[in-house]
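MODEL INPUT / OUTPUT PAIR
PAIR INDEX: 1
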Amino acid sequence: MSKSLLSLAITAAVLSGCSLIPDYQQPQAPVAAQYPQGPAYSPAEAANQAAAEQGWRQFFHDPALQQLIQTALVNNRDLRVAALNIDAYAAQYQIQRADLFPAISANGSGSRQRTSARMSQTGEAAISSQYSATLGISAYELDLFGRVRSLSEQALQTYFSSEEARRSTQISLVASVANAYLTWQADKELLKLTQDTLAAYEESYRLTSRSNEVGVASALDLSQARTSVENARVQLARYTRQVAQDENSLTLLLGTSIPANLPSAQPLSADLLSELPAGLPSELLQRRPDILAAEHNLKAANASIGAARAAFFPSISLTANAGTLSPDMGGLFKGGSGTWSFAPQINIPIFNAGSLRASLDYSKIQKDINVAQYEKSIQTAFQEVSDGLAARQTYNQQLQAQRDFVNANQDYYRLAERRYRIGVDSNLTFLDAQRSLFSAQQALITDRLAQLTSEVNLYKALGGGWNEQGSQKAEVSKEAPPLKLF
């Protein structure tokens, strides 16, 4: 008996190295080797440091924004859920990996039974006892064709994917907080501009009203001046509402209230962001967590094919126990009371109406789906970076043109006001200059916000926002969670 057990163990050990998982081949990236070139793009430059390795404290210069990001990383609930998902998938991997090892259990039992005299063969009442102590293995599957290890590999790759999902959530959170903060600051600047403009309009209306009283300005001039005041009041209510809503959006992202000790915000015209190197499209494959997560899901689907293939082959499970059995407690561990049982079981699939073939086909189809999803994630990343690079160059040109436009409108406004006050031009020209200047100043703030958010989105698209300091590496662990035996 011992020789047969030894032979079986050796055979199991030899066959345990068998795996039916297909060799993994990384799909080719379905994008160009270079980002687009043309009038909308700045010339490509060599990057000394990848954007993903540039810490968010290094990229964002505003101390108030840095504090808000730090607060969000501690309190945001979406990020907390992503971290808990990692723990959940680690536990699932632990469950699946445990099937590679036999489950050993110890059992002790005892019973006493009284038989009445009427039921006893001797005609006298009798009391019988039985005690046992066993150590056994229950239904342990010999992983001869790698089915269990394929399922374990699938769970491991899913765990790695959850780590990348958490990293992607953090990167998105950092960008979302930055964009929400910049929108908040832009709306506050628009609110301040509207307040100043309303004050100027009201002063102009007051002067026009006095001119109307002495017969210099007509009732039409007075009515036109009033329309400017009322329009500015509409804008004031609008931006007051938007600032309040911006604060609410920012509070939701932070997961707590906006800190009371927040440093003074820098104006949008300040140097708020660092310059970003774009690098090469191939770097996205190593930097973008959503691409890495899609690849891990692809590897998990590849491993599930191995499990589906192994299901076509026989499976062997072992149930065995050894212990001692005695009619009295005192003799439980004495010589001659030993007992054992060994019950191997083999399962050979013969007919299953095509379910095993369908399961294998399903696994292959799922792999093809994951390949397409992986390729789509690469194409999406390429498009987001390309959009960001186009926005960088064109926004620089647009902002400079808009600044020149504001300066021109300021000159127009000063001349129109002077000529109106001395009676050379009509009130209509002066009002047109007022409204044109207000509109140009609003557009300048809006364009600056669009430029800043496009740079933040480019930082996110390049995989930036995972590290706090630039000296750290933007990587996550690719080691399996430790095996807990007990």
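PAIR INDEX: 2
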Amino acid sequence: MESQDVTKVVLLACGSFNPITNMHLRMFELARDHLEDTGQYRVVKGIISPVGDAYKKKGLIEACHRLEMARLATKDSDWITVDTWESLQPEWVETAKVVRHHFEELLEAEQNTDDVDTVKYTKRRRIEENHLESSSCHRGRDAVRLMLLCGADVLESFGIPNLWKQEDIAEIVGRYGLVCITRSGNDPHKFIHQSDMLWKYRKNIIVVQEWVTNEISATHVRRALRRGRSVRYLLPDKVVHYIKEKGLYSAESEQKNADVVLAPFQRYTGASSS
């Protein structure tokens, strides 16, 4: 029987997934093992949310392909799913808004388990209050906790001027929490120490050490594909077959958005394409 002190967790990963790699999937497994080993959490779901085309990242292929590759990659998983909401938005959506959207979906799912409107309202209010009243990781059994899952490179990107709004970082880390997987060459503990914002919410950041370093970069995968090299065992087989079938990732596709300013920089600095 599950202890009442165990918090149910949903892990949300946002990113380009251009293409999705085995390392993206491995992050979910590492995070689940680490969280459940503490005895404080039970991971009930993982969500992959690919960014929309309006993000304007160089070499970013169409969301329809990135979504389908993510679906193929998670087809055999009994707990990781792919969500289309972010990808289908006509404009780029800040990660904080994506996290907020998924949290509201969780609240709605909690609501729908009750039959009486007054019970639904009371339960929703209790869950919201549980989530807002404390940044502690111990929230009681009723609240399903949503946490953003990322690599150490994303954590360090918080320090890049005009890439993130400070209030968004505060909301993501302070209200929801972050599970950060280490990568060789990145020291998340050092970065947390150097950032006043992250230091303030350090108890809401769970750093997971990856001892079996397997650095699979989507950038390196795309380079190999452009050069006609094998990417087998770097990506799920179904994804490799899809890329070949659709003829994805070429010298031409890598130049997509090359002259366009990344959406956050456009929004926060007023910059536009050259």
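PAIR 2 NOTE: Residues 115-120, 132-141 have pLDDT under 50 and may be disordered.
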